[in-house]
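Hey Z.,

So I finally got round to the flavin mononucleotide thing we talked about over coffee. Here's the setup:
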Amino acid sequence: MEKVNIGNNPFLLPMPMVIVGSCMGERPNFMAVGWASRVNAKPAIMSVAIGLHATAGSILETGEYSINIPSVDLLRQTDLMGMVSGTDFDKSVLFDIFYGSLEKAPMIRQCPVTMECKLIQVVELPKDSLFIGEVKGVWSEERFLTGGSPDIEKVRPFCLTMPDNRYWSIGPAIGRAWHDGLELKGLLTAR
Ligand SMILES: Cc1cc2nc3c(=O)[nH]c(=O)nc-3n(C[C@H](O)[C@H](O)[C@H](O)COP(=O)(O)O)c2cc1C
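And the result:
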């Protein structure tokens, strides 16, 4: 089939949705973020790409923030966190908030998995900034875990696609990582 060049948008499909929590002065604030990723295993380090939003200023000021994974039940709340600014509204009233070891990393009790992060590096990009933070604590509840780790079927996270701007739930498991590819290993040429 002939390939067509469709431009240079960063098409990553899908992107897991998270809510980033920070402190605007004394007030907890939350924003929707689709550009989040784990970037280092040990120590646990995560990154979030954030534009010129109130949250960016808060993280720079305090050096702390949280990454909260909402379930599909929190879709509307998550969406609203991405449409209004903490500069104009107190968005924290929609959630029960708790803290772990970091004083300026407010976490959302309704989210099945939440992580408190300490900022370790900021990479300035042409439009957005990449906030890189070490995960200092991960909080969940027994009902969302299997064998001590978050279970995707119990957490029920959701994803985002752009530019169609739609949310997607997660489908059934289709394979085993670090395992299923071995079936094809015989096709490789040894070097
Ligand atoms: C689905 C969705 C995903 C978003 N993802 C990001 C993102 O990854 N980075 C970003 O800077 N803004 C993102 N936004 C926009 C911010 O969440 C939005 O501007 C928010 O109001 C900022 O809040 P604040 O001003 O209280 O910091 C997203 C918005 C939506 C609706």
